[in-house]
Design a protein that fits this description.
mainly beta; 4-stranded antiparallel beta sheet; 28% strand; 592 residues
Length: 592
């Protein structure tokens, strides 16, 4: 693999400022050249290449994963290469490498497809593929077709040049996953309607519907070589199906929460991995129809899993907190206080032995800021791509020989710890940009809050009366019939206060007052309190008669197009005065 540098890949050119002179790149071609040039024929000798050592001088002797199938630990993608972001960001639901490995396809909640270069990780193109969120994407085994499914239950056919040939609605509910048959003649979908459907690829006709889950079907996968389906559901169950008859062969119990993803091991097809929201992942052996490995270590739910395309014992899991753990199925890696356990394969009775607990061989605790929804390996097995709810697509690979700086970066220890250690420093320009974006968002939220209508019924136009009107009593009064006060002129029982919906009926009040409210109190109304005066400049609502205490200070209503006066907002406080007050309190004193 070609060189990379710092936190974003690339080359160390010695330039102190500005962009590097060469584009960030990770090219596996040189390792294949070295391998094909120096390898010997099978059977000649098993000791062909010199063992790789942790020294920078062995960079030129690096081998691709296909040349070291017996050393899966050398392929663990512990090094962060690059982070790719769209100009208009949306959560990334699916990441998928093209069959030849030249590009990475990402699908987002906006329904867009984005293509990224597989070597330089730069943006190539973007297209509007669906009208809603894309939930699943898969390539055919012949590498000639692409299927995608969305939130509305539609499935679309795409050629390798992303020419859309067909679209049809497979479900009325969102489709969560889909998979091709080994012969590419059929495909299966899993939906929130708790069913799996098998369709003929050529005609798009539904051939069978698999029912048996009691809740939403969240994932499905087709065995790489056999007529066998596996599905996981919100009912905590993993089911194996016969696609010919539609019969459920068995149900695997083990998870205690929603099963998020199920995947067959792509090389041998003997193992089956599943992950769930119970913070565990399990590996089942379909020959024994039981779980043989229990993967622990996550502190949140596990949202996705990915098998390595070459090493059958390397499994990667991703959590809802943005963490990414890599497990080696032939290494237990127990903590210091935990005693090692025996594998079911090494026990005298494998069918009865408990599942062996495995712990991660490597942890990337801060791979993303939020849940990782999808991961996919490059077909050659040297780069792992991940898509997350933090709207970022990231690329990962193995570190070069002698490179140990990755263990102290912010992906492993977090941003605050990396800054404290001095291994990572956020650029000042990035700090200012984030602060400006936060201030702009706060300002926008403030404007929205000013334009929001009141959530409570108030008396319009009357200052100080901001409390909602009390609900009337069952007898129609606001104080409960005889419990009300005796209003002069109306006897012992005052009539109910006229209401129109949740607001007072002004027209009815004027009619009760004989069409006008003079400066003095009308007959039957309690007198105004002594010295009562309305605030200066107060304007009554349109159509409201003059109120007592207005005097000559009241401004007559002019013709404003709506039959009333122009209401003016009180002046806002001075920003300079507010800033000076904040600076006196010790804030915002640093010039920018």
């Amino acid at each position: 693999m070609d060189g990379y540098h710092a936190d974003h890949g690339g080359f160390d050119t010695g330039r102190g400022r500005g962009r590097p002179s060469r584009r960030n790149a990770t090219d596996i071609g040189t390792t294949y050249v070295h391998w094909t040039h120096n390898r010997r024929a099978n059977g000649r000798s098993s000791r062909v290449f010199e063992a790789e050592r942790p020294s920078p001088s062995y960079v030129g002797d690096m081998l691709p994963p296909a040349a070291r199938k017996g050393r899966p630990a050398d392929s663990i993608p512990a090094k962060h290469l690059h982070s790719s972001l769209n100009k208009v960001r949306h959560p990334v639901n699916v990441v998928k490498w093209t069959p030849e490995g030249r590009r990475l396809l990402t699908a987002s909640t906006s329904g867009e497809f984005t293509l990224w270069n597989g070597t330089g990780f730069n943006f190539e193109t973007i297209m509007q593929a669906h009208d809603c969120a894309v939930r699943a994407v898969t390539y055919a085994h012949n590498d000639e077709w692409l299927l995608s499914a969305d939130q509305d239950g539609f499935v679309k056919y795409w050629q390798t040049n992303f020419n859309n040939l067909k679209s049809f609605q497979a479900h009325n509910d969102p489709i969560r996953d889909l998979a091709f048959a080994p012969t590419d003649s059929k495909f299966v979908t899993a939906s929130d309607d708790a069913t799996l459907k098998i369709f003929d690829f050529a005609t798009s006709e539904e051939q069978s519907t698999l029912t048996g889950h009691q809740w939403d079907a969240k994932c499905v996968d087709w065995h790489p070589t056999k007529g066998l389906l596996v599905s996981g559901s919100k009912d905590h169950q993993v089911k194996l199906w016969d696609p010919r008859t539609g019969r459920c062969l068995t149900t695997l119990h083990g998870h205690k929460n929603t099963v998020a993803m199920t995947k067959f091991e792509p090389n041998n097809g003997v193992l089956l991995a599943s992950c769930a929201r119970d913070q565990t992942a399990r590996v089942f052996d379909i020959r024994m129809m039981r779980d043989v490995f229990l993967l622990k270590g996550h502190e949140k739910e596990i949202s996705s899993i990915a098998w390595h395309p070459i090493h059958s014992s390397l499994l990667t899991t991703a959590g809802g907190d943005g963490s990414m753990f890599h497990y080696l199925l032939d290494e237990q890696n127990p903590p210091q206080v935990t005693a090692p356990t025996l594998s079911p394969y090494d026990s005298q009775n494998p069918s009865e032995a408990p599942a062996q607990t495995l712990h991660p061989a490597h942890k990337v605790s801060f791979a993303h800021e939020y849940a990782i929804w999808s991961m996919d390996w490059h077909p050659l097995g040297h780069i792992l791509a991940s898509g997350s709810n933090d709207k970022v697509t990231r690329f990962w690979t193995r570190p070069r020989p002698g490179d140990d700086t990755y263990t102290n970066d912010r992906r492993h220890y977090g941003q605050a710890a990396a800054e404290a250690q001095g291994t990572w420093r956020k650029a000042e320009a990035q700090r200012l940009r984030e602060e400006e974006e936060a201030e702009a968002e706060d300002e926008a939220d403030g404007l929205v809050d000013q334009k929001m209508p009141s959530k409570q019924a108030m008396l319009p136009g009357l200052p100080g009366l901001n409390a909602p009107m009390p609900a009337p009593f069952p007898d129609g009064t606001s104080t409960g019939g005889s419990q009300g006060f005796n209003m002069p002129g109306f006897g012992n029982g005052a009539p109910p206060f006229p209401m129109q919906g949740n607001a007072p009926d002004l027209a009815k009040i004027m009619e009760m007052a004989s069409g006008q409210i003079p400066n003095g109190a009308p007959p039957g109304f309690p007198p105004m309190p002594p010295g009562f005066q309305l605030p200066p400049g107060f304007q009554p609502p349109p159509g409201f008669p003059p109120l007592p205490g207005m005097g000559s200070s009241a401004t007559p209503l002019e013709n404003s197009g709506v039959g009333g006066g122009i209401r003016k907002r009180a002046p806002l406080p001075s920003q300079q005065e507010s800033l000076a007050q904040e600076m006196r309190q010790g804030r915002y004193v640093k010039p920018r």
